[in-house]
Design a protein that fits this description.
The chain has one domain. It is mainly α. The protein is rod-shaped.
Length: about 25
């Protein structure tokens, strides 16, 4: 269970980083 939570958290962080890059690219 903790592994799944960590994976979800990592994915969420990566998505946030991608959104930041997209916003900063504009």
């Amino acid at each position: 269970m903790p592994l799944l939570f960590k994976l979800t958290h990592t994915t969420r962080v990566l998505c946030a980083n991608l959104h930041v890059k997209c916003f900063t690219s504009f």
